[in-house]
Amino acid sequence: MLNAMTALGQGTRLVYRKGLRRYIFLPILVNVIVYATMLSVVINRFSGWLDHWIGLVPAWLDWLSWLIWPLFMISLLAVIFFTFTLITHLLAAPFYGFLAAKVEIQATGRIPLDDRGLSKTAIDAVGRELIKLAYIAPRAIALFIVSWIPGLNLFAPLLWGLFSAWVMAITYLDYPMDNNKVAFKDMRQRLSKRWWQSLSYGGLVTLITWIPLANLFLIPGAVAGAVLMWDQHYRTARELTHQSHS
């Protein structure tokens, strides 16, 4: 049975083989540009952001500063992480969708059900990313607010970890599903049906996105790994769900 680590390893080796390497250069270039821009902004502004938000903490909570400071750090880093992820995938979505289609053909021998032209696919890919953004953003905002509620914020790191894994599962596993005409709602249901595979793969991708520089070259492999996960775990998930209800 294909697991998250195996899928990522096989996917990374696959995209750097002759025949697929040509499809990863533009996504990597997009990631490099966004990564460098975000890193520059964070380095120049992080201490100012930290001082500003810490200054908003009421005086009567000063005795909790030892706990509030690391929780704020985690929350702010999570916001930066999601911002970086959403921007890169919004810009690179057309390339990732095209890469996923090529990987599916080469790795599985199956042709995606998508019959749209290249330009239509690119436009629809951006639209799909906006749908993801509409789903993710309010939940991320709610979690950020929870991170500041005394008592509940003790669970914030765990909640951010689970949420990050779920977001990465949605982000990457959606590429092959979109190519095979799986609606966004149906995609989420399939991920829920295979919740362990979804969270384990999403969690692994979350970890590699935090590896400086190396993440730029591992992300295309994560797209390819998602195709392998789709083919083994999710392609028939809807049929299995229907059978269990019949």
UniProtKB/TrEMBL annotation:
Localisation per UniProt entry: Cell inner membrane; Membrane
Keywords, in A-Z order: Amino-acid biosynthesis, Cell inner membrane, Cell membrane, Cysteine biosynthesis, Membrane, Sulfate transport, Transmembrane, Transmembrane helix, Transport
Principal subcellular localization: membrane
Gene Ontology process terms (BP): cysteine biosynthetic process; sulfate assimilation
InterPro entries: CysZ-like, CysZ/EI24, Sulfate_CysZ
A cellular component term, taken from the record's GO annotations: plasma membrane
Pfam entry (one): EI24
Recorded topology in the membrane: Multi-pass membrane protein
Bilayer-spanning residue ranges: 23-43, 63-92, 195-219
Domain of life: Bacteria
HAMAP family given in the database record: CysZ (MF_00468)
Role description: High affinity, high specificity proton-dependent sulfate transporter, which mediates sulfate uptake. Provides the sulfur source for the cysteine synthesis pathway.
Family named by the database record: Belongs to the CysZ family.
Protein name, UniProt field: Sulfate transporter CysZ
Lineage per the UniProt record: Bacteria, Pseudomonadati, Pseudomonadota, Gammaproteobacteria, Oceanospirillales
